[in-house]
Amino acid sequence: GHSKLSNRFQYLAACFWSFYADYPYVVVAVKSDKDRHFARNVSGLPFHDVMLLENLPKSASLPVATSQEAKRRIRSGQWDFDYIFYTESDQILMNRRPEDQYDYLDAHPRHVMIPHRLMAYPPDIITMFHKRELNTNSPLDWYGMQCCLPRQHCTERKLWKHMKEKDVKILNIFGIQTVL
């Protein structure tokens, strides 16, 4: 990725542990033997599997190659999973009710669920730079919130709203100020 080398393991570990309780069969894809050795023997993370995807033209090819290899392994019978949750190692999962997701996917087997990517902001950036008030609600209020708030309709980039606008929601998620 594009993160500092010194931060990559922290991102990986935070990502891993954020969904391990709900999704214990965590697979990581790497593009070198060195990274495979690190994932299996050094990281201390209990990966279900480590996919080595060699001979990729560049690191940016890893996400697509990972999806293709996961699909191949499921179709060949090498893996026996009903669902795949794909993410990258800098995205933390905050999952309210995974059983609802399974019920939905079982009822609509050809649908794909895509998580929101939330952006956390330091309080000073919200208050001083964007001139907004912090969300002082309970850090657990987000459990009852719906994710489909009218921030962005995503039809055209020019319709997107900036976080300075008052109708853009700021959530308090476990004490972290997060823009939805």
Automatic annotation (TrEMBL):
Source taxon at top rank: Eukaryota
Protein name: Glycosyltransferase family 92 protein
Protein source organism: Spumella elongata
